[in-house]
Amino acid sequence: MAFLLAPWPVAHAVFLVLDVYTVLFVLGLHAASATRPHLLTGAVPRLRQAGHVELRVRWSGSRPCGMSRCSPTRCGTGC
Questions:
Q1: How far does the chain reach from its first CA to its final CA, in angstroms?
Q2: What is the mean pLDDT of the chain?
Q3: E strands of the chain, at which residues?
Q4: By the 8 A CB rule, do 8 and 2 touch?
Q5: 3-state secondary structure of 6
Q6: How far is CA 68 from CA 21, 45, 52, 78, in A?
């Protein structure tokens, strides 16, 4: 891509910034998944995606018992 954009230094700089932003975004998504893994408790397994979505599933059935969007003050509460 750098070879194609060599005649236009401004376009080259813009794409460089976009590339760096994309790499940081993907690393952030990976970090969010690694620091907020799924949690198995005695009563309810909690499936999490990043820091915002938490799905609690009942052991005895296939219906979810609740889905919530977490905030830093509300996460970690029971079902």
A1: 50
A2: 75
A3: 39-40, 45-49, 53-57, 64-69
A4: no
A5: coil
A6: 29, 14, 8, 11
Query: Over the stretch 42-77, which tens digit does the pLDDT of each residue have?
Result: 777 777 776 677 777 776 655 555 555 555 455 455
The model's pTM: 0.51
Rounded CA separation 76/79 (Å): 9
Cα dihedral 14, 15, 19, 25 sign: positive
* Per-residue pLDDT at 61: 53
- Tokens of residue 74, six digits: 């509300």
Beta bridge partners of 69: 53
User: What distance in Å separates the CA atoms of residue 46 and residue 33, rounded to the nearest whole number?
Assistant: 14
Q: How far apart are CA 15 and CA 51, in angstroms?
A: 29
Strand-pairing partners, residue 44, are: none
